[in-house]
């Protein structure tokens, strides 16, 4: 009995320590989540869709992109390609958190699945206060951020059905957030070089893609863009058995993907152009 009370007390202390650190994320997630919920409702998708996407996907940028994917002709390959490219940064987040999440036991899958940009910025820089277990501290930060996003998306979708004003431009909310984050970063001299390189690379890539659109048309596949984006992936799996060895360590999965007529082909030049325009 005493042991159980001690565990509950420690977890409560971890929650009290974690909550203040997540307040800035809460304010951002409630506003951004509400914007997503409203946008999804105006596209004709109700509260069930909002809850499902937020619980399963839980990736703000891709959820905003997902609204466009839902309202356009669905292409599984382009959806997969877009998801991988938009969320590729999370692979690096995960690698950098291997040591911090070591020994977290049964909550480790929760920590991994709820690792977003904002949660990463907290858990990668904060250490638990004295007397608070590292596992419980990081768990509460991750769970609270997750819940903030669910609440924001759900409320936004619920309220969205009552709005009568024009919501055009609401999808710019996420872009505005990244602009603010960029401006905060470039204030530091040591971060300016990386920011400038990123902008130059994006502008150069966009120029190439626009030329591809003019040369072959927006709806036609762009082998140049696909090779530049994913061509280097297969090099790590040489000697290659197929052109998609990087997709899975299980060769059966790769073969099944290649045999599926809905999962083959290169993404259109128009898709790359829209994605790079959004990044810019």
Short description:
By secondary structure, this protein is an all-alpha fold.
Please tally the β strands and state the result. 0
Backbone shape: globular
Ends: how far apart?
Answer: 58 Å
Q: Stretches where pLDDT falls below 50 for ≥5 residues?
A: none
Number of helices: 13
pLDDT average, as an integer? Answer: 80
What does the largest sheet look like?
Answer: none
- CA radius of gyration: 21 Å
SS strand fraction:
under 5%
Going by helix content, strand content and strand pairing, the class is: mainly alpha
Helix/strand order: HHHHHHHHHHHHH
The proportion of residues forming helix, as a percent range, comes to 55-70%
Structural account:
This protein has helices at about 1-40, 45-55, 60-70, 75-85, 90-95, 110-115, 115-125, 135-160, 175-185, 190-215, 225-230, 250-260, 270-280. The model has no long low-confidence stretch (mean pLDDT about 80). The N and C termini lie far apart (about 60 Å). Helix 10 (about 190-215) packs antiparallel against helix 13 (about 270-280). The protein has about 280 residues and is mainly α. About 70% of the residues lie in helices and about 0% in strands. The chain has 13 helices and no strands. It is globular and about 60 Å long.
What order do the helices and strands come in, and which of them pair?
Blueprint: H1 2-42, H2 47-56, H3 60-71, H4 76-87, H5 89-96, H6 108-113, H7 117-123, H8 134-160, H9 173-186, H10 189-216, H11 223-230, H12 251-259, H13 269-279
């Amino acid at each position: 009995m005493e042991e159980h009370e001690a565990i509950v007390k420690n977890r409560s202390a971890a929650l009290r320590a974690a909550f203040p650190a997540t307040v800035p994320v809460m304010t951002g997630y409630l506003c951004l989540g509400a914007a997503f919920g409203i946008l999804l409702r105006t596209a004709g998708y109700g509260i069930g869709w909002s809850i499902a996407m937020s619980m399963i996907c839980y990736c703000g940028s891709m959820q905003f992109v997902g609204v466009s994917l839902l309202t356009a002709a669905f292409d599984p390959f382009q959806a997969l390609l877009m998801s991988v490219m938009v969320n590729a940064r999370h692979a690096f987040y995960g690698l950098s958190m291997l040591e911090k999440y070591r020994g977290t036991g049964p909550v480790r899958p929760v920590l991994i699945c709820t690792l977003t940009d904002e949660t990463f910025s907290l858990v990668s820089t904060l250490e638990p206060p004295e007397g608070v277990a590292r596992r419980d501290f990081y768990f509460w930060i991750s769970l609270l951020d997750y819940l903030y996003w669910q609440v924001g998306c759900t409320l936004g979708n619920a309220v969205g059905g009552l709005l009568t004003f024009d919501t055009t431009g609401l999808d710019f909310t996420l872009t505005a957030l990244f602009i603010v984050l960029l401006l905060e970063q470039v204030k530091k001299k040591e971060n300016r070089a990386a920011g400038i390189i990123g902008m130059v690379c994006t502008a150069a890539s966009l120029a190439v893609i626009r030329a591809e659109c003019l040369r072959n048309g927006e709806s036609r596949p762009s082998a140049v863009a696909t090779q530049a984006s994913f061509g280097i992936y297969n090099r790590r799996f040489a000697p290659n058995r197929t052109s998609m060895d990087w997709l899975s360590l299980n060769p059966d999965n790769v073969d099944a993907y290649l045999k599926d007529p809905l999962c083959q082909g290169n993404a259109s030049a128009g898709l790359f152009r829209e994605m790079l325009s959004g990044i810019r």
